Amino acid sequence: MKPAAFDYAQPDTLGEALALMAKKGEAARICAGGQSLAAMMNMRLATPEVLIDIAGLAELQTIDIANGAIEVGAGVTQAELLAWPKLAEFQPLLAQLLPWVGHYQTRARGTVCGSLAHSDPSSELPLALALLGGDVFVRSQRGHRIINAEDFQVGMMATALEADEMIVAARFPLARPATASAFEEVAQRHGDFAIVAVGAVGNKDGVRLGVGGVADTPGVVDLTWPVADAALNDFAWSLGGADDQHATARYRRELVRRIGRRVIDEVHNALP
User: Fold this and answer.
1) Which of 129, 206, 222, 263 has the smallest number of Cβ neighbours within 10 A?
2) Is residue 40 scored above 80 in pLDDT?
3) What is 61-173's CATH topology?
4) pLDDT digits (tens, 9 = 90+) for 220-247
């Protein structure tokens, strides 16, 4: 299939992009990498009247350390963040997780913030934002606001963004001293959307476990050492889930229990 007819805009500044968003509202869609949006447009699941391409805005192509977090601009691709020399030092979980995001070719075009805005429940980056307790910096002509992960991801492919707003940066907290992290997922093929993805970050007091691919939004739970199998089982059931063409809810629960145990043990064994 081919997309419905649409207008294409390539603003020279962020201000111009925000002005277009204010004018067009729900009829406009932001595009940076287009790896998810283009497919939805081809299937006519998304039919914007105007596509606003922000990929060329230099002010959105930055990776900085600010206020105890890695701040990733809306134009930064997944490959650029993965290649950032300081990533493994400042946030090991992202360095462990990013190689699982799509394929080499899609990471070269897909953006970090675009994945968050798409908010697919099987996507790894929304899981990372929730697990790390990150947030997004959002702008419109009306002003700006900071939305934490829990409030930003409101449902399957649904966020708290207003029609005239766009993400300008995502912020992932820096790893704290004396912590360890681990990530693993199961998919039909490496690079496909996860059937179940599990990440963990821990310290001497306990571990925070995050799961994607089961519920409509990532599920997160804080557990203390030692983590009993019963606690993992309770968490797996709390996520709900449903049967689909990829897996049954029962299979997903079993993956949460099994992968959850592996990443928890990996974190525990890696702690200083």
Assistant:
1) 222
2) no
3) 3.30.465
4) 999 999 999 999 999 999 999 888 888 9
Instruction: Return residue ranges of the chain for CATH 3.30.43.10.
Output: 7-53
Which fold is adopted by the domain 7-53?
A: 3.30.43
User: What is the end-to-end Cα distance of the chain in Å, rounded?
Assistant: 54
Angle formed by the axes of helices 249-270 and 229-238, nearest 10°? 140
What are the start and end residues of each CATH 3.30.465.10 domain in the chain? 61-173
CATH architecture of residue range(s) 180-270: 2-Layer Sandwich (3.30)
Say if CB 170 and CB 94 are below 8 A apart.
no
Burial string for 224-243 (b: 16+ CB within 10 Å, else e) reads: eeebeeebbeebbeebebee
* Predicted TM-score of the model (pTM): 0.95
Would you say residue 34 has pLDDT above 90?
no
Instruction: Answer yes or no: is pLDDT of 6 > 90.
Output: no
Tell me if residue 208 falls in helix, strand or coil: strand
pLDDT tens per residue across span 162-191: 999 999 999 999 999 999 999 999 998 888
Provide the residue type at 121 as one letter. P
Report the length, in residues, of the chain.
272
Print the SS3 string covering 133-201: CCEEEEEECCEEEEEEHHHHEEECCEECCCCCCEEEEEEEECCCCCCEEEEEEECCCCCCCCCEEEEEE
The overall longest dimension of the chain from CA atoms, in Å, is: 57
Q: Closest Cα to residue 80, out of 91, 72, 70?
A: 72
